[in-house]
Design a protein that fits this description.
- Helix content is 7%, strand content 40%.
- The chain has 1 helix and 13 strands; from the N terminus they run αβββββββββββββ.
- The chain has one helix spanning 3-19, and strands at 28-30, 36-46, 81-84, 104-113, 117-129, 137-143, 146-147, 153-154, 166-173, 180-181, 190-195, 204-214, 221-236.
- 28% of the residues are buried.
């Protein structure tokens, strides 16, 4: 074969490669149905305090003598008390498909705190995910600001403290599966967990920790709001 014919064949081959259809890769998207859903209702009571001084992490001493030896007000906090709201709670649903109804569960937490104090762990919610979807799954969290009957609120914030009233949710990949995690610091629906593979056969565990801070001037009342956890499997679209 002449060099011209060889060169011509090379051009044709190049055109064939250029015109060949590109390989298509399926995009991964959230399923349009919920696989499971759980709600925590938080009931946080800011205790009434009237004292000579202030109920705070570093109390302002309100009684003085020439040789003062003052004992600060006891500002200890307590762990949240959890109550199951729905029957057969914490079970999760049977393996689901788009035509099935997800299992919806709910718990309620009661907690009290003094104004002027903070608690990085007033309670935890531990969720186990069992999912054989090879594309993986996500856990979305949507949190409300906590509100009392008069309209005052404890808003969800990034950094609540003894001087900044608010609460937040810290997300941890307890089993270290390599999931991408995000803390919840606003009322915006947040993809708190994203994992691009199936779970372990025994399930993957994630811990969500509630932290709270209450500034000294916060109104004494019970503040209530919901935190909704939604499990969505990821599918090849």
């Amino acid at each position: 074969m002449s060099k011209k014919l060889i060169a011509g064949a090379g051009v044709v081959a190049s055109l064939a490669v250029a015109l060949a259809p590109m390989a298509s890769f399926a995009a991964v998207a959230d399923a349009t149905w919920n696989s499971d859903q759980h709600t925590d209702t938080l009931n946080v009571t800011v205790l009434p305090t009237c004292a000579f001084g202030a109920a705070s992490a570093t109390p302002v001493v309100g009684v003085a003598h020439n040789a003062a030896s003052n004992t600060p007000l006891d500002n200890s906090t307590n762990a949240a008390t959890w109550t199951n709201v729905t029957a057969n709670d914490n079970l999760g649903m049977t393996p689901d498909a788009a035509s099935q109804t997800e299992h919806v569960s709910a718990d309620s937490a009661a907690y009290s705190i003094y104004a002027g104090t903070a608690d990085a762990n007033m309670g935890e919610t531990i969720l186990k995910v069992v999912c054989n979807q090879n594309a993986g799954y996500k856990i979305y969290v949507e949190a409300e600001n906590l509100e009392e009957t008069g309209g005052d609120t404890i808003d969800i914030k990034a950094s609540p403290s003894a001087t900044v009233t608010g609460y937040n949710i810290t997300t941890a990949d307890t089993d270290s599966r390599g999931a991408t995690t995000a803390n919840v610091t606003s009322t915006t629906k947040t993809a708190a967990v994203t994992l691009g593979q199936a779970s372990n056969a025994a399930g993957d565990t994630y811990t969500f920790t509630y932290g709270i801070g209450v500034a000294p001037g916060t109104k004494a009342a019970t503040y209530t709001g919901d935190v909704v956890y939604t499990l969505v499997q990821q599918i090849n679209s």
